[in-house]
Amino acid sequence: MSNRERSQLDQLVEAVLASRSYRNISRDFIDVLGSQELVKRSSLKEAIKATKNKLHQVGGAYIEGEAHYRSWIAQLRQAGAHGDKKLLKQACMGMMGYHVSTRERLPILEQFYTTLLADLPPIRSVIDIACGLHPLAIPWMSLGQDVQYYAYDIYRDMADFLNEFMDLIQVQGGAQACDVIQHCPAFKVDLAFMLKAIPCLEQIDKNAGLRLLEAINADHLLVSFPVHSLGGRKKGMVMNYEVRFRELVEHRNWLIERFEFPTELVFRIVKRKGR
Ligand SMILES: C[S@@+](CC[C@H](N)C(=O)[O-])C[C@H]1O[C@@H](n2cnc3c(N)ncnc32)[C@H](O)[C@@H]1O
Question: Measured in angstroms, how far is the CA atom of residue 205 from the centroid of ligand 1?
Answer without folding.
Answer: 14
